[in-house]
Amino acid sequence: MSSVIKNGRVYWLVQKQESEALLFAVDEQVVSDVERRLVDLVLSTKKEPEPKPARMPTEEERKAGLVRDWLHQQQERGFTQAEMPDQLVSLLSLYSTKVPILLYGDYTTSRRVHYAELKKLLDSFFDAEITLIPLTEKEWLILGSEKILTMDGSDDRISDEESLEDKLAAMGYGLHEMLENEWVGEAHLAVHYPMTPAKSLYSVVLQLRETIMLGRTYHVGSSMHLPWELQLEKLVHLVPEAEKASFLERVLKRLDVAFDPETMTTLEQFFQLDCNVSETAKKLYIHRNTLLYRLDKFKQETGLDVRTFNNAVLVKIAMLLYKVTKRK
């Protein structure tokens, strides 16, 4: 790469990219012929950095991609139920019962999570082989054997006393805590009951997506979403928008007064603790009489006493509707 002398200045081409060029220039008098040739030599030996070779997917990742493509095809056709072809089932040995988990990584678009990176992290956490299927750029389906529900090695007798829902929730919360500490960005998880992928993988994926959607819609601060805890939310979500607004008007005429932040927090804790006054007061770190005052105040403003079953149900539904309507 030789230099060029023009109008008393020496020019070197340092870099060229498409229609743009980067030049280096000095006055001809300040550089000797030897120095000029030395710069020519240095620039001539300068090499452009070689592009990194494209990452080749592993055989396991390739097989998982085939399952992903099949799931996408069923969705594009508008199906709600579909059995997997035998050749796909055998590829990833999906005949046995699996515990399905849907992971949605709420990371930035500049952050790309690679299959091998996430697979290694999950294998280490469960201390067992799991099946990982990338559904979208941010969405991952995890399939583990039923052994992952007892991975803590707890006493079988104690474990038997737990419900299946308790075991699934404990596993899900443990996984979410690990992802929070080890992963980049916020992660949302949904867990489903054990199932046979060959028969119901597609419908379960749809249900898991619905579970995350309901959880993110009605419980904004939550990142762990369990379908058995979102039954009422699922029902309410099916109500037409006009009916939602009409219900709120009938039940709570002044929403801004009824659902101020303090009241919302109080009622959410009250319902979460099965309308137990003493436990709610402890949870909120307030005196029992302070809680009773807040409940009485709400009754005066709305005419609804949440200490009675019927009124508690009405207010619970109204709170769910209010959360989604106020954001629109």
Question: Describe it for me?
Answer:
The structure is a single chain. The strands form two sheets. The protein has a five-stranded mixed sheet with strand order 5-6-4-7-8, with helices on both faces. It is an alpha+beta fold and about 325 residues long. It is extended, with a radius of gyration of 30 Å. Helices cover about 50% and strands about 15% of the residues. It contains 14 helices and eight strands. Strand 1 and strand 2 form a beta hairpin. The model has no long low-confidence stretch (mean pLDDT about 85). It folds into three domains: about 40 residues; about 180 residues, Alpha-Beta Plaits (2-Layer Sandwich), CATH 3.30.70; about 90 residues, Arc Repressor Mutant, subunit A (Orthogonal Bundle).
Order of helix and strand elements from N to C terminus? EEEHHHEHEEHHEHEHHHHHHH
**How helix-rich are the residues, as a percent range?**
40-55%
Unreliable stretches covering 5 or more consecutive residues = none
Strand % is 5-15%
The CATH architecture of the largest domain can be given as 2-Layer Sandwich
Overall mean pLDDT score? Answer: 86
Query: Which CATH first-tier class of the largest domain would you pick?
Result: Alpha Beta
* Head-to-tail CA distance between termini: 63 Å
> How many domains make up the coordinates?
3
Global outline = extended
Q: The CATH topology of the largest domain, please?
A: Alpha-Beta Plaits
Counting H and I runs of at least 4 residues, what is the number of helices? Answer: 14
| Structure classification | alpha+beta
| Main beta-sheet strand count, sense and barrel state | 5 strands, mixed
By DSSP, the count of extended strands is 8
Q: Spatial order of the strands in the main sheet?
A: 5-6-4-7-8
Radius of gyration: 30 Å
InterPro entries: CdaR-like_regulators, Homeodomain-like_sf, PucR_C-HTH_dom, PucR_C-HTH_sf
Pfam family, one: HTH_30
Domain PucR C-terminal helix-turn-helix: 264-320
Protein name: YxkF
